[in-house]
């Protein structure tokens, strides 16, 4: 089973690319979706213990948690110590399920792939990128996004140029969806050894 790792900085189009892999029948493990479900389940109690007031009605209050982290960025390490092991466990369970199904190719969508040294756990890394002005435009359209928040997120991510230098494959999402879709299909063909246009 070939394991591809997909990553890219905020606003680069990673989720769109991941969906395109899924549309081609590639099983995808989305770390963000895993975190989302953890924030409504297993991670709630430990996060409340570490960040008092950061949960409400049995779920993590992302807005309040973000506020506490923005006030004190050194707390990111504390949050990661809670969340990362749970995300890793979900990933291992996903891979075990896919091996049992004899899936030839799977995709791990890992936002902080290089930051968490996850490249050691995959066979090849796919980096999603786009022009900086397109990235900024996409990110600033997100609800609740501010210049400060954008700067804080970027400061915690490996720069795009560095990611591209380390990538085995690059998908540029600056163009139309069809262009991105074509790049995704080409990677799937190349990795699985399929012949195609």
TrEMBL record:
Chief localisation class: cytoplasm
GO cellular component: cytoplasm
Catalytic activity of the protein: 3'-dephospho-CoA + ATP = ADP + CoA + H(+)
Sample GO molecular function, one term: ATP binding
GO biological process: coenzyme A biosynthetic process
Keywords: ATP-binding, Coenzyme A biosynthesis, Cytoplasm, Kinase, Nucleotide-binding, Transferase
Domain of life: Bacteria
Enzyme kind, highest EC tier: transferase
Enzyme Commission identifier(s): 2.7.1.24
UniProt family annotation: Belongs to the CoaE family.
Entries under HAMAP family matching the protein: Dephospho_CoA_kinase (MF_00376)
Function per UniProt: Catalyzes the phosphorylation of the 3'-hydroxyl group of dephosphocoenzyme A to form coenzyme A.
UniProt name for this protein: Dephospho-CoA kinase
Phylogenetic classification of the source organism: Bacteria, Pseudomonadati, Pseudomonadota, Alphaproteobacteria, Hyphomicrobiales
Gene this chain is encoded by: coaE
